[in-house]
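Q: I'm teaching a short session on how sequence maps to structure, and I want students to see two examples side by side rather than one. Could you give me a first protein with its sequence written out and its structure tokens following it? Keep the formatting plain so it prints cleanly on a handout.
A: Of course. Example one:
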Amino acid sequence: MTGNLPDALPGDVLDRRARLPLKPEPMTLPGARVRLEPLDIRRHVEPLYAVSSGSPIAWGSRSVGAYDADALIWRYMFSGPFASLAAFAEYARRQIDAPNGLPYCVIDLAAGQPAGMANYLNNTPEHLRIELGSIWYSPIAQRTYANTETTYLMLSHAFALGYRRVEWKCDSLNERSRRAALRMGFKFEGIQENHMIVKGRSRDTAWFRILDREWPDVKTHLESLLNGTSPTA
């Protein structure tokens, strides 16, 4: 069975492909609760390791006791937990050096401290498609507005640059990530079985996305979350 091809895209849409670099341009994305800074080994890696290795954390009146770093952060990630600062630094360096990605350090503005990381991944300017991924937060920043505002800032920036599709993918077993994607307005597209081998195990991957035509409604939704309608944003 055959059908008609869709109309050719407008010239201005097609022209964006040549303007967007394979490696996203690093720039700071400021928010009300967090600031996203392009990851810097010298400034960010040591404090990020300190809040993601299982050791107790104290930020003024906020504190977290010793915790299971694998269970709370690293279980569904491609790497980690890390036995040393040097191993964590190598993990960070690989993300910085990715030819089609850009890692951000998420700064908690109230504490003035690094709280986690988020990446633009698998950037494909040819198809005006980019992914948000390798996202993690220290337990001291989990169940705050950090993830919602980080996602809002990265989506806003991506669609302002002219991308047509932003993806979110996670291990199908990662219920927390799947719930977060849906809560923030991503649409579930299905499960890709036997998609990867991660840490010696087979991974089925859940796919989510937001399209440029959906972004205005998602933007309004995220702004309502950030205005305080959800205590776990």
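Q: Perfect. Now a second example for contrast.
A: Example two:
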Amino acid sequence: MIRLDAVRKSFGSQVVLAGVDLAVATGDTVAVLGRSGSGKSVLLKQVARLLRPDGGTVRVGEVEMSQADKSTVMEVRSSMGYVFQFAALFDSLTVGENIALPLRRGGIASDEARVRVLEVLETVGLPDEADRYPAELSGGMRKRAGIARAVVARPSYLLYDEPTTGLDPVTTAVIDGLMLEMKRDLQATSILVTHDIQSAFRVADRLALLHGGRVRFEGTPDETRSSNDPLVRAFVEGRQELWPPDSV
């Protein structure tokens, strides 16, 4: 499981997280919603210990990440896949070489790594792209390659940072389908950070709305759809007029 308790994070005088409580049960996917600048990506980086909280605790499995030493953090990260917002592929490496990076770090032999890379490329619908470079791929293809890299080592935890941003509806549906496939095949405990409420409804077991540095609402897709909270309704219905003036 992943659990955040009273997590706080500020950058200078700007308070981003003001006491976030969030729990993700083993094998579940929680979608974290919120407006731009609400701290969604900062929350995700706390889980991977890319950032350290100013206060509170972040637990991944049995490890309290904010207090763990470097070797323990690296061990946890080896069981974690991270899908970056813009794929974050290395331009100087081929798609296959990019995807193989987690396997190489894990000491997997090159022949086995090649087999694993080709298998996961088949899974994400890019069977013939191993020897191409990221610049030769469309945006949607790069997103799929980023997912392939995140899952090639068969992680226990998956962190998705805006995986459908900038994609057309058809490609978004493809990415959503991949996330559901990874959930089924890997049974990974996952956090999906997204602006896309429809994607969240398709993929997540629970949704959490981040606002004012805290989790304002959390519930199942059905509970989210039926919520009377004006901020939740603004997201569900895409209606700016429902957003309170002092909450912009």
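Q: What should students look for in example two?
A: Point them to this: The mean pLDDT is 90. Also worth mentioning: Strands lie at 2-11, 14-24, 29-33, 55-60, 63-64, 80-83, 157-161, 189-193, 206-211, 214-219.
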